[in-house]
UniProtKB/TrEMBL annotation:
Location in the cell: Cytoplasm
Domain CEP63/Deup1 N-terminal: 12-279
Listed InterPro entries: CEP63/Deup1_N
The keyword Lipoprotein belongs to this UniProt entry's keyword annotation: no
Coiled-coil region: 226-274, 362-389
An individual GO BP term: de novo centriole assembly involved in multi-ciliated epithelial cell differentiation
Protein name in UniProt: Deuterosome assembly protein 1
Length: 398
C-alpha cells in the first residue's frame, strides 16, 4: 500500500508537468496558426489585388487593341482616299498637260505664221512703217504665258515630291503599326505567362495550408514558404511596373500616330488647295488665251485688208500712169498721123499686151484673195476646234 501511494505521488507531478507542456505547446501552435492565418489572409488580399491589377491591365490592353484596330481602319481608308485622289489628280494633270501642249503648239503655229507675215510686211514697208505696238504687246503676253507655264511645271514637280513623301509616310506608319501589333502579341504572351505563374502560386497556397499542420510543420519550413511568397509578390510587383511602363509607351505611340494622321490630313488639305489654285490659274489662262485669240483675229483681218489694198494700189498705179502717158503720146501722134501710123500700131500692140498683162495680174490677185480667204476659213475651223477642246477642258474641270 505504501509503495502504491508513493508511486501515485511520484506520477502526479510528472503528469502535471506533461499537461502544462501540452498546454504550452497547444498555445504556441494556436498562436502560430493564428499568425499563419493572418499572413495567409494578407497574402490572399495581395494576390487578389494583383489579380485585379492584371485584369485591369488586360482590359487596358484590349482597349488598346481596339484603338489599334480603329487606327488601322483609318489608315486603310486614308490610303484608299490618297490612292484615289492621286490617281484622279494624275489623270487630270496628264489631260491638262496634253491640252496645254496642244494649245501651246497651236499658239506657236499662229505666232510663227504671224511672224512670217510680219517679216513679209516689214520687207515691203521697211521705208514707210514701223512695227505695230500691238505685236509687241502680244509678244509680251507670250513671254508672260511662257513664264507662267514654267511656274506650273515647278509646281507640278513640287506636287510630285509631296506625293512621294506622303507615300513614304504611309509606309512608315504601316511598319510602325506592324511593330505595334508584334509588341501587343508579346505583351499578351507575357500576361498569359504571368497568369499561369499566379495560378501555380494560388494552387501551391492551399497545399501549403494543408501541410501546415501543427504536428508536421516546422518553423524553418514556414519561413521558406514565406520567403517564397514574398519573392512571388515582388515578381508580380515588378511585372506590374513593367506593364505600366509598357502601357505608357503604347499611349505615347498612339499619340504620335494621331499626330501623324493629323499631319497627313493637313497635307491633303494643302494639296487640295494647291489643285484649286491650279484650276483658278487655268481658268485665267483660258480667258487670256481667248483674248489673245480675238486680238490675233482682229490683227490678221486688218493686216490682210491692208495688204490687199496696198497690193491693188501698187498693181493699178503703174498701169494707170502708163495709160495716161500713152494717151498723151497718142494725142501727140494723132497730129502727125500719116507719119506715125506705124508707131500707133506698135503702141496699140503694146497697149493690148499691157491690158492682157493687167488682166492676168487681176486674175492672179483674185486667186491670191481666194487663197487668203481659204486660209482664213481654215484658221477659223482650227480656232473653233480649239474652242471646243477648251470647252471640254472646262467641263472636265467642273
Amino acid at each position: 500500500m505504501e509503495n502504491q501511494a508513493h508511486n501515485t505521488v511520484g506520477a502526479s507531478p510528472c503528469e502535471a508537468e506533461l499537461q502544462e507542456l501540452m498546454e504550452q505547446i497547444d498555445i504556441m501552435v494556436s498562436n502560430k496558426k493564428l499568425d499563419w492565418e493572418r499572413k495567409m489572409r494578407a497574402l490572399e488580399t495581395r494576390l487578389d489585388l494583383r489579380d485585379q491589377e492584371l485584369a485591369n491591365a488586360q482590359t487596358c490592353l484590349d482597349q488598346k487593341g481596339q484603338e489599334v484596330g480603329l487606327l488601322r481602319q483609318k489608315l486603310d481608308s486614308l490610303e484608299k482616299c490618297n490612292l484615289a485622289m492621286t490617281q484622279n489628280y494624275e489623270g487630270q494633270l496628264q489631260s491638262l498637260k496634253a491640252q496645254f501642249s496642244q494649245l501651246t503648239n497651236s499658239f506657236e503655229k499662229l505666232r510663227l505664221h504671224q511672224m512670217k507675215q510680219n517679216k513679209i510686211h516689214r520687207k515691203e514697208l521697211s521705208h514707210k512703217e514701223e512695227i505695230p505696238f500691238e505685236l509687241s504687246n502680244l509678244n509680251q503676253k507670250l513671254e508672260e504665258f511662257r513664264a507662267k507655264s514654267s511656274e506650273w511645271d515647278k509646281q507640278e514637280i513640287l506636287y510630285q515630291t509631296h506625293l512621294v513623301s506622303l507615300d513614304a509616310q504611309q509606309k512608315l506608319l504601316s511598319e510602325k503599326y506592324n511593330q505595334f501589333q508584334k509588341q501587343t502579341q508579346n505583351y499578351q504572351t507575357q500576361l498569359n505567362g504571368k497568369n499561369q505563374c499566379i495560378g501555380d502560386s494560388s494552387s501551391e497556397i492551399p497545399g501549403l495550408v494543408c501541410q501546415s499542420d501543427p504536428g508536421c510543420e516546422t518553423s524553418e519550413r514556414d519561413e521558406f514558404i514565406i520567403e517564397k511568397l514574398k519573392s512571388a509578390v515582388s515578381e508580380i510587383a515588378l511585372s506590374r511596373n513593367k506593364l505600366q511602363d509598357e502601357n505608357q509607351k503604347l499611349l505615347q505611340e498612339l499619340k504620335m500616330y494621331q499626330r501623324q494622321c493629323q499631319a497627313m490630313e493637313a497635307g491633303l488639305s494643302e494639296v487640295k488647295n494647291e489643285l484649286q489654285l491650279r484650276d483658278d490659274l487655268l481658268r485665267v489662262i483660258e480667258m487670256e488665251r481667248l483674248q489673245l485669240h480675238k486680238e490675233l483675229l482682229k490683227m490678221g483681218e486688218c493686216q490682210s485688208a491692208q495688204e490687199n489694198k496696198r497690193r491693188l494700189e501698187s498693181s493699178y498705179s503703174p498701169s494707170i500712169e502708163e495709160t495716161q502717158r500713152k494717151k498723151k503720146e497718142l494725142f501727140s501722134v494723132i497730129q502727125d498721123q500719116p507719119n506715125q501710123e506705124k508707131k500707133i500700131n506698135k503702141l496699140r500692140n503694146q497697149l493690148y499686151q499691157e491690158e492682157e498683162y493687167h488682166n492676168s495680174e487681176q486674175e492672179r490677185m483674185r486667186n491670191e484673195i481666194s487663197n487668203l480667204t481659204e486660209e482664213l476659213h481654215q484658221k477659223e475651223i482650227t480656232i473653233a476646234a480649239v474652242m471646243k477642246k477648251a470647252a471640254l477642258l472646262e467641263r472636265q474641270l467642273k
